[in-house]
Design goal:
Strand content: 15-25%
Radius of gyration: 16 Å
Order of helices and strands: HEEHEHEHEHEEH
Number of domains: 1
Strand order of the largest sheet: 1-7-6-2-5-3-4
Number of strands: 7
Shape: globular
Oligomer: single chain
Number of helices: 6
Structural class: alpha/beta
Largest sheet: 7 strands, mixed
Length: 196
């Protein structure tokens, strides 16, 4: 049987990850749409490792970035990697922009780093939570764990709508996951305000 280019990319990505001692853990999503959070996010290395992991699992994951990143010379590359440009300056909020993407695309799996930065924060932005509820999709718990050299998505949650309960479950999942710079990984909890 002939291999498609995606199969070959996945095999090559898997070989490269294994060569550096990484293992991929993956449980397919329960449906055709989902929000995937990735935590902890403490290093620029997270992106290339994540791109390799994405190739291995073969799930068409998308990510968001400031619209200015999608200009020449890197715009085409970011779009090829699954990037979606968002403009935070427009009157319609980010969650509404992304909900429109969920309405328009099928399948659609969107990766969000809820810390919003590689620096330490004391709480997560709530956009991923509000988006998953609004789009009525599950949340995948993605991770790049430098402690065990594992990357993947192996847990999918249906949110209850009770932030305290849901975030307690999410915090328990991430309790043993370690970023490249552990001191930059803040606590797993939502910000008090509703900003994304």
């Amino acid at each position: 049987m002939a291999h498609t280019p995606a199969d070959l990319r996945g095999r090559l990505a898997g070989a490269l990850l294994r060569a550096f001692g990484w293992r991929v853990d993956y449980l397919p999503p329960p449906g055709r749409k989902a929000v995937v959070v990735v935590y902890p996010h403490t290093s620029n290395w997270d992106f290339p490792i994540g791109v390799l992991g994405r190739a291995v699992i073969g799930l068409p994951l998308h990510f968001i970035g400031k619209h200015t990143l999608f200009r020449w010379p890197f715009g085409a590359l970011f779009r090829w990697l699954g990037g979606i440009a968002v403009d935070r300056s427009v009157s319609r909020g980010l969650v509404e922009q992304l909900q429109a993407q969920f309405d328009a695309r099928d399948p659609f799996y969107l990766v969000i780093t809820p810390e919003g930065t590689r620096s330490r924060t004391e709480a997560w932005r709530s956009g991923f939570y509000r988006l998953a509820l609004a789009a009525r999709v599950p949340v995948g718990l993605g991770f790049i764990d430098y402690g065990s050299k594992r990357i993947g998505i192996d847990t999918w949650l249906e949110l209850s709508g009770n932030p305290a309960t849901d975030m307690a479950r999410i915090a328990a999942f991430y309790a043993d996951k370690r970023g490249l710079h552990p001191d930059k990984a803040g606590p797993v909890r939502l910000r008090a305000d509703s900003a994304t």
